[in-house]
Amino acid sequence: MATRPDYMDDYDAHGVVCIRQAFPEEWVELVRRGIERNIQAPSPFFRKLDDGSGAFLSDSWSRRHIPEFERFCRESPAGRIAAHALACSRIRLAQDTWFVKEPGTSDRTPWHHDTVIQGPFCSIWVALDPIPRSATLEFVRGSHAWGKILMPKSFFADASRHSAADAYYAEFHGDKSRLDASLFGEIPDIEADRAAYDIVSWDMEPGDCVLFDARTVHGAPGNRTSRVARRFVTRWVTDEAYVAPHAQNMVDALEKFGLEAGLRVGGPIRNALFPEFQY
Question: Where is the signal peptide (predicted)?
Fold first, then answer.
């Protein structure tokens, strides 16, 4: 594996780093086309949340039938970036996903971190459009080192009080009916006192990406601009990663929709759904 880039020092220290122009235009245009194809041929994981002013769309594990995504995952710089972040020459693709926030979307992506996989686990979010800081993903710098598994407030609240966005992010983050809620901390009310947290975000141009540790707490405002905001995301692990004790929802969903993932709580991330790459 090549010498680790200097920007990985920020990734290690802060849990997140913005990498400018990491993906040339050919990769940006490729996944834009893939998203259009995916919207016309959605998977069982496709979601469209519409708050009446603008819609939020997403799909996951679509590379199996969207050739543009498959090529991006196998050939773009994403895997090499992840290998540097995880300090491992052999890594696995855990998930491909994408997010589209149409102009005017008001619902905020709730603050959360990604803990259904434990162990070495990172995400790479690639901007496909110019996205101002007012609409980009935000991070609490250094929160990857808090050392706790935290759940959004919606995990502890009555499900009838969830917003559509809360329900979407709760879908794969644990089912409190199966779990002892006392085992988890609650994401603090960051919006109530933003000045108390070291919140970072960046104006993004197509081809820029944010690389972050899955444990770094993150969220995003709605898209109150006049332009669509599209992002393509790949998530990566090493063979040391394993399925978290509170991830049964994810395991069940994959089985329900016919994805032969071979996962079990406490078990490793293997199988053809999670291809291995070597750098």
Answer: none
**Within-domain flag for 264:** no
Tens digit of pLDDT for each residue in 221-256?
A: 988 888 999 999 999 999 999 999 888 888 988 999
Domain count, the chain: 1
Band (pLDDT 50/70/90 cuts) for residue 166 is: low
Indicate which CATH number applies to the domain containing 238: 2.60.120.620
Tell whether 270 is covered by a domain: no
Q: Exposed, middle or buried: residue 158 (CB in 10 Å: 0-12, 13-18, 19+)?
A: exposed
Cβ atoms of residues 35 and 233 within 8 Å:
no
- What pTM was estimated for this model as a whole? 0.91
277 domain-assigned: no
pLDDT tens figures, 119-151: 999 999 999 999 999 999 999 999 999 988 888
Question: Long-range contacts for 170-177 (Cβ within 8 Å, ≥24 apart)?
Answer: 171/249, 171/253, 172/116, 172/247, 172/249, 172/250, 172/253, 173/112, 173/115, 173/116, 173/246, 173/249, 174/116, 174/246, 174/247, 174/249, 175/248, 175/249
Range of the domain at 95: 8-259
